[in-house]
Design goal:
mainly alpha; single chain
Length: 335
């Protein structure tokens, strides 16, 4: 493309669009139609320049012009309760459901890794000795030791808030760092499973695995599921970089990235619930069966939410992406 010729051919259209935008509140019907047409043409021009002859100054000018025109054409809107309801009943569960082929295997394999680590640590005293000194191990695993008092070491509300913040950060890192081919996600998963495996192994060696499970299961089922969903989604995003499928890599990453952003918000709500269980239920005086029952119930409700509401939304065409009018305009890449 000869950029100078292209600019000379279309500069009048860009100037006319700019003039219409400056007085958009006083346009008649014919001028509004003209504005829409010029917006679509200028968006196409911008795409052509970006793909064929990128010029930073010209690209910047046209990007601002297209953004202003898009705002004028689509209008500004504020989030409403309808948007929140739609997100909670359609967008978020659909996004989780669509990524189930990634997070379910992630959950199964990660759990298997944690179990194998726990077995290895619990059956090998030399491995336990490499973790901590014998006195420190006894302090961690004895009745009333660190593993038991951890959940009641702070006021319930502040502990729940701290747990929620830490887990939400871990989930967000899985979602955001997934774009780096998923490698950071695997590292985050390994660290989480290592921590779980150490607890399982040390408490097993002390003959107190039942106590450990009674402490970890009430909140851990929902908490780990949220982490697995985030990790699976991050891995899916990383795979999109490698294989975008029939979509262009740019559009595929945009779609999956927007869905991952929504997933981060939804998972923050899920982790808020698991944090509340960890802060108020896990250290409570309820019988072990009751505490585990609450955790199992929360997990089943979440899975039903995903597979019933999410499955129904996906079959209706929901993808977990934002609504079409809120996406960046899709324009042709060739004239």
């Amino acid at each position: 493309m000869d950029l100078d010729v292209f600019v000379s051919a279309h500069r009048a259209e860009w100037d006319r669009l700019d003039a219409l935008l400056r007085r958009q509140r006083r346009l008649d019907g014919a001028e509004v139609d003209e504005l829409v047409t010029l917006y679509q043409r200028t968006a196409t021009h911008l795409s052509l320049i970006q793909s064929s002859a990128p010029d930073p100054q010209l690209t910047g000018r046209l990007s601002q012009l297209v953004a202003r025109a898009r705002s004028a054409v689509t209008g500004n809107r504020r989030a409403s309760w309808r948007d929140i309801t739609r997100f909670l009943t359609h967008g978020f569960p659909a996004a989780v459901y669509r990524s189930r082929h990634w997070w379910v295997p992630t959950a199964l394999l990660s759990t298997l890794v944690a179990v194998l680590l726990g077995w290895w640590i619990g059956t090998h005293p030399e491995v336990q000795a490499s973790i901590a000194a014998p006195d420190a191990l006894r302090e961690m695993t004895r009745p009333g030791g660190q593993y038991e008092t951890y959940y009641s070491s702070h006021p319930a509300a502040s502990f729940a808030a701290q747990v929620w913040t830490n887990n939400a950060q871990a989930a967000a890192m899985c979602l955001v760092l997934g774009i780096f081919l998923g490698l950071p996600v695997l590292w985050i998963l390994l660290l989480n499973m290592l921590n779980l495996g150490v607890g399982v192994g040390l408490m097993t060696s002390a003959g107190r695995l039942d106590v450990f499970l009674g402490l970890i299961l009430p909140h851990g089922l929902l908490e780990l599921t949220a982490v697995f969903v985030a990790a699976g989604t991050g891995l899916r995003l990383g795979w999109t970089v490698i294989d975008p499928g029939p979509r262009t890599r740019r559009s595929a990453l945009a779609e999956e990235g927007r869905a991952a952003l929504g997933m981060a918000i939804g998972l923050a709500l899920v982790l808020f619930i698991s944090g509340a269980i960890e802060g108020f239920v896990t250290p409570s005086g309820l019988p072990t069966w009751a505490r585990i029952g609450i955790g199992v119930l929360a997990e089943l409700v979440f899975l039903a939410y995903v597979y019933v509401l999410g499955g129904r939304a996906v079959r209706a065409g929901e993808t977990g992406d934002v609504e079409e009018h809120e996406r960046s305009a899709a324009v042709p890449v060739a004239a």
